[in-house]
Amino acid sequence: MWTGPMLLDIHSQRKQKICLVILNQPIDERYFHVLWSKAKIRACADGGANHLYRLTEGRRESFLPDYINGDFDSILPEVKAFYTQKKCKLMETPDQDLTDFTKCLAIMVEEIKAQKLQIDTIVTLGGLGGRFDQIMATLETLFHAQKMTDLPVVVLQDRSLAVLLQEGRQHHLNVNTGLEGKWCSLVPVGSTCLTTTSGLKWNLDNQVLAFGQLVSTSNTYEDHDPKGGRKPVTVTTDKPLLWSMGIKPL
Amino acid sequence: MDEFAPLDCLLPSAKIRACADGGANHLYRLTEGRRDSFLPDYINGDFDSILPEVKAFYTEKNCKMMKTPDQDLTDFTKCLAIMLEEIKAQKLQIDTIVTLGGLGGRFDQIMATVETLFHAQKMTDLPVVVIQDRSLAVLLQEGRQHHLNVNTGLEGKWCSLVPVGSPCLTTTSGLKWNLDNQVLAFGQLVSTSNTYEDHDPKEGRKPVKVTTDKPLLWSMGIKPQ
């Protein structure tokens, strides 16, 4: 069972083992500390290092990434010099058809294997805001990630979380952590999706989600007995389907 | 083929101006001190976002307040529907419907904006352009060759073609990385961080041309002004 928001729960009983990717977007400080402290491997994709550098001013030595990759056209010279001097691995992955984010994930998957780590989720800070084509590029990376690893790749920015649900299996989403915001959504980003759900206020019963036809946004969770707690949301789809949800302000 | 300049809309001026629900809050805040010069023709929505003082202000100024309660359609979609009726009722010659906002904030609402652009294609032939921060997005219809004038001087560096909703068989010219009857599809090939082909500075840029067999989302950067 997958628990997205549990990533953010510092008191969580079940310690999710994660790896952390920081992208070139302002970092939510509220989430940063919880995620950084839980992560087994921490990386920045190019300009993500600038945001890390800025956020951790005064105590930068305590927040050194394991590696920084990219074509290095966004990272500032002083930031690059600092992390180089602190012996963080700087991995130049020059411009090709793949984004810095995709390449960062590829390295992450290799590192997890090389270090023989048991990891539950790869968490990404940033990617859902800013330049519109780069939001779209984030989604494209989630598609590529499915071919690179079975691990869920979760993207967080501001109070939104997004994850691409694979086709062909029933997903159980634990939405009972207390960290859930009000809204949730299922979006057939790349193609029509034949979808069945339970646990939502507006469920789908073997229905086609498709742009121009039906897209589920501003959905929410079904009412539940406050003593009972929410049942998991279940989702099946025949094509990759983008789940997103709101996060309660921490 | 009629040419379409996506950034043309940043030159004045609008014939009809409307707010979708909480858009009125932003208008109210932005125009503090001279609100009377910036009255929308109408404000629609389920009114769950507009602040009471804002609603009271615009009501008192006789802006049309059109409650369009929650159904399966977003405030944005309903605002467009009203806009089209008004254009028809007033017999206006309009080139483009421009939207401020929609590409940032809550992630599902960014997706809902894109969904509205799909619905808009069934509602009108007018292009519906969405602008936020320094991004512009417009959904290109299938079945015809689009000529995008990108020589206004307002263009930023990047542009992008994204096959939202389904794979798109695409051909382009005028881009640095063109497509030659290729399939754009999530998980396969999506064009982001593209840019314009080099051109003779004396000549100016040739239009970007795009044909697609399914609706294809064009987006581009806007130069800081």
Automatic annotation (TrEMBL), chain A:
Enzyme class, first EC level, given as a word: transferase
Residue intervals of the Thiamin pyrophosphokinase thiamin-binding domain: 178-241
Record Pfam families: TPK_B1_binding (PF04265), TPK_catalytic (PF04263)
UniProt catalytic activity: thiamine + UTP = thiamine diphosphate + UMP + H(+)
Stored CDD domains: TPK
Family: Belongs to the thiamine pyrophosphokinase family.
Function: Catalyzes the phosphorylation of thiamine to thiamine pyrophosphate (TPP) utilizing UTP and therefore links the biosynthesis of TPP to pyrimidines metabolism. By producing thiamine pyrophosphate, a cofactor of the mitochondrial pyruvate dehydrogenase indirectly regulates pyruvate oxidation and lipogenesis. Although it can also catalyze thiamine phosphorylation using ATP and CTP in vitro, it does so with significantly lower efficiency and without physiological relevance evidence.
Top-level lineage group: Eukaryota
Protein name from the UniProt record: Thiamine pyrophosphokinase
Single GO term (MF): thiamine diphosphokinase activity
GO biological process: thiamine diphosphate biosynthetic process; thiamine metabolic process
UniProt-listed Enzyme Commission number(s): 2.7.6.2
Keywords: ATP-binding, Kinase, Nucleotide-binding, Transferase
Organism listed in the record: Carassius auratus (Goldfish)
UniProt subunit comment: Homodimer.
Pathway: Cofactor biosynthesis; thiamine diphosphate biosynthesis; thiamine diphosphate from thiamine: step 1/1
Automatic annotation (TrEMBL), chain B:
Reactions that this protein is recorded to catalyse: thiamine + UTP = thiamine diphosphate + UMP + H(+)
Gene Ontology CC entries for this record: cytosol
Top-level taxon of the source organism: Eukaryota
Biological process per Gene Ontology, one example term: thiamine metabolic process
CDD domains: TPK
Class in the EC hierarchy, top level: transferase
Annotated metabolic or biological route of this protein: Cofactor biosynthesis; thiamine diphosphate biosynthesis; thiamine diphosphate from thiamine: step 1/1
Pfam families from the UniProt entry: TPK_B1_binding, TPK_catalytic
Keyword hit for Nucleotide-binding: yes
GO MF, any single term: thiamine diphosphokinase activity
Key words of the record: ATP-binding, Kinase, Nucleotide-binding, Transferase
This enzyme's EC code(s): 2.7.6.2
Residue span, Thiamin pyrophosphokinase thiamin-binding domain: 153-216
Cross-referenced InterPro entries: Thi_PPkinase (IPR006282), Thiamin_pyrophosphokinase_euk (IPR016966), Thiamin_PyroPKinase_B1-bd (IPR007373), TPK_B1-bd_sf (IPR036371), TPK_catalytic (IPR007371), TPK_catalytic_sf (IPR036759)
Summary of subunit composition and partner proteins: Homodimer.
NCBIfam families: thi_PPkinase
Family as reported in the entry's similarity comment: Belongs to the thiamine pyrophosphokinase family.
Function statement: Catalyzes the phosphorylation of thiamine to thiamine pyrophosphate (TPP) utilizing UTP and therefore links the biosynthesis of TPP to pyrimidines metabolism. By producing thiamine pyrophosphate, a cofactor of the mitochondrial pyruvate dehydrogenase indirectly regulates pyruvate oxidation and lipogenesis. Although it can also catalyze thiamine phosphorylation using ATP and CTP in vitro, it does so with significantly lower efficiency and without physiological relevance evidence.
Name assigned to this protein: Thiamine pyrophosphokinase
